[in-house]
Amino acid sequence: MTDDLLDGPGEAVGRVLGTADATPLTFWTAVSPGSYLQLDDVVVTRRELPDREPVTIAGVVTQVRARHEGAQFDSDVFAIADGTLPAQVQEAAEVTTTRVDPELYVPPTPGAAVFRAEGDARARALHFDRMERRIPMGMGRDGVPVYLNADFLDGTRGAHVSISGISGVATKTSFATFLLYSVFRSGVLGGDAVNAKALIFNVKGEDLLFLDHPNARLDDPTRAAYAKLGLDAGAFPDVRVYAPPRVGDSSGTPDVSSRLTGVDSFYWTLSEFCADRLLPYVFADADDERQQYTMVVHSVAAHLARYAQPADGGVSIDGVRLGSYADLVDHVVEQLNDDETRGDWAGGAVGLGTVNAFARRLIGSKKDLGRLIRGDLATRRPHSINTAESAQVTVVDLHNLPDRAQRFVVGVTLKSEFERKEKAGTAKPLLFVVLDELNKYAPREGSSPIKEVLLDIAERGRSLGVILVGAQQTASEVERRIVTNSAIRVVGRLDPAEASRPEYGFLPPAQRQRALLAKPGTMFVNQPDIPVPLCLEFPFPAWATRVSEAGRPPSQTLRSITQSADPFAVVGSGSSDDDIPF
Amino acid sequence: MTGPRLFVDAWDPSYGASFEAAPGGPAAPSSAQVDADVELPAVDWRAIGPRPGLRAPDVVLLVDGVRRIDASVWTAEDDGASYPGVAASYAAGVVRCDLERGAAELAGAKVGRGLFTASPSAEEVICGRVRYPVHRVGGAGELSKLPTAVQAPLTALEVEVSDAARTDGDLLVVDGPLRARRQLPRTLGYIKTQHSQYLDARLTAVVTGLRPGERSPVFRLGTAWGGWSWYLRLPVAAGAPWAGIVRLECSAELPPQEAIALADLSLVTLPRFASSPYKDPRAPQNLVPIAGLERRLRALLGDARLLHRALTVATRGRGARR
Hints:
The complex is a heterodimer of chains A (about 575) and B (about 325). Chain A is of the alpha/beta class. Helices cover about 25% and strands about 20% of the residues of chain A. Chain A has 3 domains: about 5-125, Beta Barrel (Elongation Factor Tu (Ef-tu), domain 3); about 135-265 and about 385-565, P-loop containing nucleotide triphosphate hydrolases (Rossmann fold, 3-Layer(aba) Sandwich), CATH 3.40.50; about 270-375, no CATH class. In chain A, strands 12-11-18-10-19-20-9-21-22-23 form a 10-stranded mixed beta sheet. Chain A has a 6-stranded antiparallel barrel with strand order 1-2-5-4-3-6. In chain A, helix 8 (about 325-335) crosses helix 9 (about 340-345) and helix 8 runs antiparallel to helix 10. Chain A is elongated and about 95 Å long. The termini of chain A are far apart. Chain B has helices spanning about 145-150, 150-165, 200-210, 255-270, 290-300, 305-320; strands at about 20, 25, 35, 60-75, 85-100, 105-115, 125, 130, 135, 170-175, 185-190, 220, 230-235, 245-250. With about 325 residues, chain B is of the alpha+beta class. Chain B starts with 20 loop residues before the first strand and ends with a helix. Chain B has a 10-stranded mixed beta sheet with strand order 3-12-13-14-11-10-4-5-6-9, sandwiched between helices. Chain B is built from 6 helices and 14 strands. The chains are: A alpha/beta (about 575), B alpha+beta (about 325).
C-alpha cells in the first residue's frame, strides 16, 4: 500500500477518501499534509483487480475543501486557533473522472494513493494522447498547454464553436480570434491552413480592425506563453478589412475612424440587389409564417429579379432609371399603391392592408440601407465580400451600422459565402465564420432569412467546410439547434441567472459557480472528447485589439483594394506567366 | 432569601456529579492525614489569587487516556469452569498546546488492546489486523472488577506517550491522580471529581468560597499516593458551592516551595482551558484540550461494532476448531 507511493506517474498528493462514496465517475481525495490540490489539477489513481490488469482512473479536481477535524462547534475554531483544542486541518478534493483505462468502470479503492498527473499521465488523463491533431487553446491552471481536438473543429467529426459570456469581461471575441490564430499558425491543418479562410464580423468598436497590426504592448512573458503553446507571437499576416461606405458620401469611402489605411468599402449595387433577390434580408421576420406581408416580400423580390435591367450602376425598371436604394423603394411603393400595377408586383389576392404593411417596412429601411445598396458607384469597382478571393482573414466592420443594416450584411454575406461553398461541393478549404451577438441573428424565437442561413451553416456547414464560431452573451437566447450543433462549447464569465440555465448543463456545479467569477482571459472549454470542461487561460493577443496598441502597420495595408488591383493588368493575363499576353 | 438555595449541576447526569458528596461535603470524610499548614497556617487559610507577573508556560502538555470494553467474553476451561473476561481497547495520547504559537496538536497517541481475564488457559485473540494479547488478572477475576484492570496498562501507556513529548520548560497535566506518575518532572495531577473530603469544615468553607480563578493554599495529604495538593475554581457562572472546583496534586517528593510555585503556575494556566457547559457535558472541569484529545483517541480505538463483530467471528472460528 505504501510502496506504490514511490513509483507513480507524478508526486503523490493524497489518498482516496473512505468517508464519502467513491464512484467510478466522481470520488473524493484526502490531501496529504504538506501537499495541496487546486481546482483543475489533474490526478490519477489506480485500482488493482483480481486476474486483470490494473485500472487507471484519471480525473480533474472539480472541488476542494478544508475543514477542522475534531471540532464540533463553529466556535471551536477560536479554541483551536488559541492553541487549546487539538484539531487537524484536513483538505479534500473532489475528482471528476475523465478517463478510465481500460474501460472498466470500478470505483477507486478508498485508501488508494492519488498522484498528481504530470507529463504523459496528464496528457492521457485529458485524452490529449488520442488527439491526432491538437490545437493549443491556452494554459491550464497548472501552466501546461491544453489542447482542442482538431477533428471536432474542422468538420472531421464535429464542427462549430459556441462561446458564451458576459460582454466585456468574458473576452469572447479575443478567444475566438486566438483560436483562429492557433488554428492557422499551429500547423494542425497542414497544407489546408494556407487556403483556409476566416470571415470575421466586427460588431463592437473597431477592436477587430487591427488584427494585422502587431501589439505594441506585447512583452516577453506573453511571447514565452505563445512559445510554450508552440506558436509565434505575432499579428495575423494576411488580413483584409471591409467597412461600409460613409453616410452621404458619394465616393463610397469606408466609414472607419481609427484605422485609416488598408480598409476597403463594401456595398451592393442595385442590380445585384435585384438579381440576387436580396430583398427578404431587409426584413427581420421575412420568413415568419405568422406575418401576412412576407408574401409580398417574395413576390416583389421575384418581380425585381425578373424586370430590373442593369443600367450603369443603377437599374431600370419599366423604363424608369433608378439610381439609389431610396429611388428603388419609392418606385416600388408607388407601383404598389397604383391599382393597375399592384397585381403585377404583389400578386393577385393580396389585401391593401398587407401591401401597406410591406410598404411601411420598406420605407423604414431607406435610411438604414441607403448607403449599402448603391446605384451611383462604378459597377466594375470591387465592392463585394468574397472570402475566396480575399485575404486569409476577412474582417467585415459592422459596428457603425444600424441594427437592420447589420442583419442585412450578415445575412447576405453568409448566404453568398454558403452558396459559393455549396457550389464548390468540397469541405476544403475551410471557412471559419466568427459572429458575435448570435442571439441577434439567430434568436430562439421566430424565423428570418438570416436565421435560416445560420441554421443551414450549423446543420450542413460541417460537411461543406463552413465552421461557425458564434459568440453570445446568453446561449439560452440563441436558436437551440445552433447551440446543440456546436461540438465545442466555451464559457467565459457568466451572468448568475444565465449560468443556471440548462444550456450550460455541461458545466459541473462547481465550474458553474466559478464561471460567475472567471476573470478576463479564463475560459471553460467543453469538447466531446473530454467529459469535463477544461479551464484554461489564453495568452494576451499578440495582435493589436485597439488603436492604442497598434504597432507599425504591415506594408500591404498601405494599399487599398483599388490600388491592389493592377490597373495595367491585361484581361486573361493571369492564366500563366509564361504565355505571351497578346 | 429563605430556604436552601438550589443549583443545577453543570455536568450531564450520566457522568454523575463533579462532586460526589454526602450532605455537607464530599462523601465520607477522608481518614487521610492532612497537613494544612504548608503555605499558610491553617488558621489563616484564605483564597489565593494569581501571582502578579507570572505567565503561563509556552507549552502545556495534557495527557489523557480512554478505554472501551469491546466485548465481554467467557472462557470454557477443560475442567468445566468458566472465567469471565473483557476484550478492551484503550488509547493514550498527549496534546501539545503551544500557547505562544497558538497551535494545539496531538503530540503522540498510542492504542493498546487486551483480553483481560483470570482464565489460566486464555490465548490471545487475533481478528484480522487487530490483536488482543492476554492480560492475566489475579484473584477470582469477577466480571465487575475487570474494567478497572484496564487502568494499569492504560496508565503505563500514558506515561509512555507523555515521556516522548516532553520538552524543557513545559508543564504536563495528567488527567486524574498522579499515582504512579509522581516521578515525572513539572507534572500536575488534575482531579475533576471530588470523592473525598480531605479538609475539615472550616477549611472546606474556604474552598467553597473560592471565586473563579482563585485557589486554596497548598496542603499535604498523608495517604499512600499522597502529595501536595490544592483546590482551584475554574471560570464558572455563579453556582453551587462545589461548581467548577478541581483538585490538583503534585509529587510529594518536591520541596514545599516548588509545590507552591506549581500551584501558582496552575492558576495562570488552567482557567483558559476550561470548557463551556453547552459544548461539554462535564464543563468546566473537563478541559478543552482533554475533550478534544478524548474525541481523537476514541476515533483511534476503531469502530466498536466492527471490533465486536471481528471478535465474534474470530472466537467462533476458534470454538469450531475445538
